[in-house]
Design goal:
The protein has 10 helices and no strands. The protein has about 250 residues and is mostly helical. It has 2 domains: about 5-40 and about 140-250, no CATH class; about 60-130, no CATH class. The longest helix has about 30 residues, at about 205-235.
């Protein structure tokens, strides 16, 4: 009898199922994290094309500080303090005014996260880093895109290698459909990463970012549902001899 998900031993099914469930939870947490970062770029909860444009191309009508204070960082300071910083930026970002009335706000509201020990975040203990972000918002930097791109390419490729390996043992999926489902996450991953760079250069490519992410999610959901169905539900519908053989493999 050929090896497939329905006749795997009980222990292997638990191993595969545990992995798939943890990855599914991780996917859900990642989606929530995106909503609280990119999804707040325009100041409104929920992911939109404008959020993608502001995150990668930037909102070039204003500074990084102003856009963050009216977007993803809006909840980290009361309105009066946020408006005070925004007004300081619009007035030219004078260093003396900063030292006198703006620096205490940064020390109370920002420095706990934005310091030299925080990886990936600007160090706001240095005035030069604040001054740079008081200029026009150019979106993600090429350095940050390079860092995030290589992390996603390596990490997500490994995730889908194991998900695809489990799904490849499915017996109730036509070969062509199975092959398409296995290769699609990699194609959508490349589309997703490439679209970040394209959107950085031209905001008209922002829709591709959403399509790439949605394509990976749908491919994963399809492989997850089929794999779990064939491991735990399909064996109960098999003829008795096949069901007995599956139990013997446990």
């Amino acid at each position: 009898m050929p090896l497939n998900l329905s006749n795997l031993g009980f222990s292997i099914k638990l191993l595969f199922s545990g992995y798939l469930i943890v990855i599914a939870i991780g996917y859900g947490v990642a989606a929530i994290q995106i909503l609280f970062t990119h999804g707040m770029a325009d100041g409104q909860f929920g992911l939109s094309i404008e959020d993608i444009v502001y995150s990668y191309y930037g909102n070039r009508s204003g500074s990084v500080l102003e856009n963050k204070l009216t977007g993803s960082m809006k909840m980290n300071a009361p309105d009066a303090e946020r408006f005070k910083i925004i007004q300081w930026v619009r007035d030219g970002g004078d260093p003396e005014v900063f030292a006198r009335s703006i620096k205490p706000i940064f020390e109370q509201r920002c420095i706990s996260c934005h310091n030299a020990q925080s990886a990936g975040l600007p160090d706001f203990t240095q005035f030069e880093n604040i001054r740079q972000r008081a200029q026009s918002d150019q979106g993600a930097t090429f350095a940050s895109l390079t860092r995030v791109s290589h992390i996603h390419l390596f990490g997500i490729a490994f995730i889908f290698m194991f998900v695809g390996l489990i799904f490849s043992l499915a017996s109730g999926v036509p070969t062509r459909l199975k092959g398409a489902a296995i290769i699609m996450p990699y194609l959508f991953l490349i589309l997703d990463i490439t679209s970040w760079w394209l959107t950085k250069l031209n905001p008209n490519f922002a829709l591709l970012v959403i399509l790439g992410g949605a394509g990976m999610a749908m491919a994963f959901l399809f492989m997850l549902v089929v794999s779990m169905y064939e491991m735990w539900i399909l064996p109960r519908k098999l003829p008795f001899p096949d069901r007995r053989n599956a139990l013997l493999r446990s």
